[in-house]
What does this fold into?
Amino acid sequence: MQTPRRASAGARPMSSRPSTASRAVSTIRARDAVSAAFIAAACLGSLLVAAPMGRLRDPLILVIVLPPLATALDALGWSHIAARLLGRIRRFLVRTLVAYVVWLVVSALLTLDVAAVVSATVGLSLAGARRRERDAQLGAAIVGSNAGSLLFPFSNLTNLIVLTGAGISFAAYVEAAFVPQIATALGAGFVLAWRSGRFLAADVAREDLVEPQEASRPPVAAREGPTRLAGAILLVGSLSAVAAGFAGGDVAAVFATTAAFVTALAAGCGRATLPGLLRSIPRLGIAVILAAAALSGPMAAFAAALPSPARLPASPLELAALTMAGGVLAATVNNLPAAAFGAVWLHGAGAPAVVAYLIGTNVLALITPHGSLATLLCRGIAIRAGHQIPHGPYVRAAWRVGVAGSAAALVGLALFR
It folds into this structure.
């Protein structure tokens, strides 16, 4: 019998495995390239569609591109991968609080809208069919994304809108917001931990809460190339967004470009359908932004008729009044119209006054389901996944978080302003 010929010592053996990128590209070419091109064009086209929106340009872009980006990442298996990592934490309460801290950090560095869509998707994947853990993980997603959005000007688009009108520098804002941000995270986290402890004490099977779902394994073995390539694109895009945020660059354009590549990859290799990606865009979020743009004129006129905070001393009572003003307005209509109002009303005000107002629009706005755009995004993802969050139970749970987080932030601001 003839034996196979061995490769000579000087010859380089041919690799039996193509590279990650080549495997991903070959998979895309075998699928529907038209869908990939269309969804990529839609993401990049949002930059042109939102251009006339002025201060509301960036919120509109992110509302259009972030939900399809999260949907594509979920289809490629990344939400399952993240859920498996969190699922290694066996204790329900610890798992919930670790997720909360992760979403705080993501919100601070990558904007609360990114944190909202990612955290809701990962939380639902982690919880599986367990109703109690779904409630807890969605609570961690909503509270973490909103409570972590005070630290930097780019952490929340409301921050950017108000700071543009007020004329506060990056350094002055961060100096004033640092202690309130820490206090908010602790205050809101305490209420979240208390509520999660009540879940544990409820009349449910303890193992349904303590044990993570072992079935949450990503079905990505056959799609390893596209999954890895999407992760690399997301990593580069996230680092670029952080760099753009610190440099005062266009964070929304970075995420639009990232979404274009990732959604095209998911559609091209057949992991996500074009209708599904387009349906993920929340119509209510777009409607809120368009309403804020339509009401910008009347709100500016109303703000001009009020006493300017720039001419008032930044006393603790005034700071509390500014927080209430921002919070009530955001909870009633939404934090984007509240930010558009604050950009005019707070013109020339100091950094403590601006931070006090943003505590209301970012944290106190949690008390209603429509008060924050991030809350709308989280609830939209949950509803599409079949998990309803009625208004009544939401308000009964959320008002404690909003009040505790806002009060803690106000105390920190009053003591260290």
